[in-house]
Amino acid sequence: MRRNSVYIETYGCQMNAADTELMLGILQNQGYEIAKDAKDADVVLLNTCSIRENAEQRIYGRLGNFKAIKTEKPDLVVGILGCMAERLRKDLIEEKKIVDLVVGPDEYRRLPELIDVAFNGEKGIGVKLSRTETYDDIIPYREDGLQAWISVMRGCDKFCTFCVVPFTRGRERSRALDSVVNEVKLLSKRGFKEITMLGQNVNSYLDNGNDFADLLAACAVIDRKIRIRFTTSHPQDLSDKLLYTIAEHKNICNYIHLPVQSGSNRILELMNRTYTIENYLSLINRARKIIPGVSFSTDIISGFPTETYEDHVMTLDIMRKVKYDGAYMFKYSPREGTKSFKMNDDVSEEIKTKRLQEIIQLQQQISYEVNQGLLGKEEIILVEGLSRKSEQFLAGRTDGNKVVIFPFKDNIKEGSYIKVKINRATSATLFGEFAGFAETHNDDFALTA
Ligand code: SAH
Ligand code: SF4
Ligand code: F3S
To answer: Does the structure show a pLDDT above 50 at 78?
Structure first.
C-alpha cells in the first residue's frame, strides 16, 4: 500500500498556521495528498504550542484521541511538530509511546525523510534549531481565498522572562526582502486581498540594511488592492520611520498590536520588557499623532510572580489610558526553562482568575465605548462573504480589524472594498448600511504606485 496522505492539525499562533502551510507545501512537493480529516490520513501531525500550560494540556488530550485511532490502524504515523516538539524533544517519544515523529520548527525541510524513518518503524527526530533557516525558497500550500500570511522573520531574541518562544523558536533571523516581495506578487496574481506579515517580533526584521519599514513599503506598492497587516510589534522596535511608513501607504492597515503585558514598571522590569509605562504611553501618543485614527490591541498577563493588588490596578489604569480596541488576556503560566520559572509563582490561582476577570470586563467596556464612538461614521471594509449567522447579511472587516455586518446586496462581491455607515455597535461587532464602493482604504485614496 502506498502511504501518501497527510493531515496536519494546528495549534498556537499565526506563525504556526503559516508553518503548517509551509510543511504542506514541502509534503505536496513530495507527492503527498492533503487529507481534510485525520481519519483519512496515513500520517497525522500536530503542530503544537507551548506558550502556556493549558495549551500543552489540550494537545496531550488530542494525542489521546490519536492513540485510539492508532490501535485500530497500527500503521498510522503520529507526529508532534512545532514548539512542544522543541521543548519536550525525546520525552515525547519516550513517555508518550504513540508518538513516532518529533520535529521542531527549524527542521521542517527534513519532514519527508523523517516520515520515511517512522514508516520504517524507527523514531523520526529532528529538533535542532538553526541560526539561518528561513524557508525562503519554499512555496507554501495555500487554498484560494482573500487572506494570506507570510512569515517574514523567525525566532525571538527578546527573552521576556516568562516566555518560551526564544527557546522553542531560537534566534531571530529574517527572510530576504526580494523573496517576500515575490511571494506578495504571486498572492496578488491569485487574487488575495489581505496579507499579514508575521514574526514574533516583526519590527526587528532586517535584511541587508532593509528594515521592517522598507519591507512594508516594498510590499505595499505591489498591489494597492491588497491590504497589509503585520504582527507582533514589540514596543522597543516600533520606530518613527515605521509609523511614517504606515501613515504614508493607505493600504497598510492603521492597526498596531502592541503588547503591554503589565501596567506596573516594577513588573515590566521583572519581565525584562525593556520599556517603562511612560515610554510606552509616549509611543502610543506619537503613533496617534503620526497615524490619525490608528487602532491598538494588546496582550496582558495577570498574576506574574510578586504582582500586588497595586500592580494590578496599574494594569487597569494603562488600559483606560490607551483605550485599546481589543486585547488578548492571560493568566501567568510558569514555563520550565524560562527565567521567571525560578521565581516563586506566588499569586494564587484564585487571585489570578479574579484579576483576569476584572481585566476582561474592563476591556469589554472599553471596546464597547470605542465602538459607540463609530456610530454615524463611514468605515471602509473588505467584504469577506456571508455573515456567519444569516444569509441575509454580509460581513467584512475594517482596517482596524473590526467585524462589520450589513444587509446582503447582489452586487457586492467578496473581496471588494466598500463603505459602510455604522448604525449599531456591540463590544465585538459593528452593524451598518452599504454607503458606496471604495478603494482599499480611505476616501482620499490615490494610486501612487
Ligand atoms: N511575540 C509576541 C507574542 C508572544 S506570545 C510579543 O512579544 O508580544 C503571545 C502572548 O502570550 C504574549 O504577548 C504574552 O502576553 C502571552 N504569554 C507568553 N508567555 C506566557 C506565559 N508564560 N504565561 C501567560 N501568558 C504568556
Ligand atoms: Fe516572547 Fe517576549 Fe519574544 Fe514576545 S518578545 S516572543 S513575549 S520573548
Ligand atoms: Fe505557541 Fe510557539 Fe506560537 S509557543 S504562540 S506556537 S511561537
So the answer is: yes
